[in-house]
Amino acid sequence: MQMSNPQTALTEIFCRVLEEFAFLFAEPVENEEITSAPGPGFTAKMTFSGPITGQITLFVPESLIYVIAANALGVEPEDTQRAVLAQDALKELLNITCGQLLTALAGETPVFHLSVPVVSRLEANAAAALPDAVTLLVDDVPVSLHITVSEGTQR
Known about the structure:
The protein is built from 3 helices and 7 strands; from the N terminus they run αβββααββββ. The protein is an alpha+beta fold. Strands 1, 2, 3, 4, 5, 6 and 7 form a 7-stranded antiparallel beta sheet that branches. Helix 1 crosses helix 3 and helix 2 packs across helix 3.
């Protein structure tokens, strides 16, 4: 399954991976439909290079990152490592999404070099301010996805 629109492919694949990885469902919405700001949260980013080069950015509000960790890793709210495990779950969610996206965009043959996902804490959803960012509702919480791509060079 090779897709031509990276943002559409990212959205579809992220929704599927989120469902399989964390048992959560996401639905795309228009940014104008979001009535409240999601508040503080975490952004996860990773880059890739190969036949195409780019970066994926994911913003998840703080309340939802712990739900993802609980569902994916079985982390209990009182776990002292909850914050670290939640960030690890977010990194793995992004890593799986990126791998499946690159296969969808370029097929199974090309080789890509992926960066390690990096998670940062943010006070607001910076990803939503990016052009062409897609907002999804996950348990009525807005999550933002953004991708940049360009023609790459094979090493």
